[in-house]
Amino acid sequence: SWTSALITDFNGQQRSGTDIVNEYGVFGTPTLLFLDGAGHEIAERLVGYQSVDFYWSYFERTIASAWSTLSKPMR
């Protein structure tokens, strides 16, 4: 099951699916997280499912937000 599957985290460590879910506070499916290379959330997460039209619209908007965050110069 996914809870016992080993997943490589952003530090290269093997962790269980349960550990990853707990770290990011995921409580339902589907949950889409938009993360940078260090594992930090860079846009609003998408939790749950509405309808195809609404979901796709939210998905595109969130991708644009994530790209915008990644495009900003680091300070």
Please give a structural write-up.
This protein is an alpha+beta fold and 75 residues long. The strands form 2 sheets. It has a two-stranded antiparallel ribbon with strand order 1-2. It has helices at 17-24, 52-71; strands at 6-8, 14-16, 31-32, 46-47. The protein has 2 helices and 4 strands, in the order E-E-H-E-E-H. The longest helix is centred in the C-terminal third of the chain and has 20 residues, at 52-71.
Quick description:
The protein has helices at residues 17-24, 52-71, and strands at residues 6-8, 14-16, 31-32, 46-47.
So how many helices? 2
How many beta-strand elements? 4
**Percent range for β-strand residues:** 5-15%
Helical fraction equals 25-40%
Domain module tally: 1
Helix-strand sequence: EEHEEH
Q: Spans of 5+ residues with little confidence (pLDDT < 50)?
A: none
Which of globular, elongated, flat, extended, rod-shaped describes the shape? flat
- In whole angstroms, the N-to-C terminal distance is 41 Å
| Mean pLDDT across residues | 89
What is the C-alpha radius of gyration, as a whole number of Å?
Answer: 14 Å
Protein name: Thioredoxin-like fold domain-containing protein
Domain Thioredoxin-like fold: 16-52
Pfam families: Thioredoxin_2
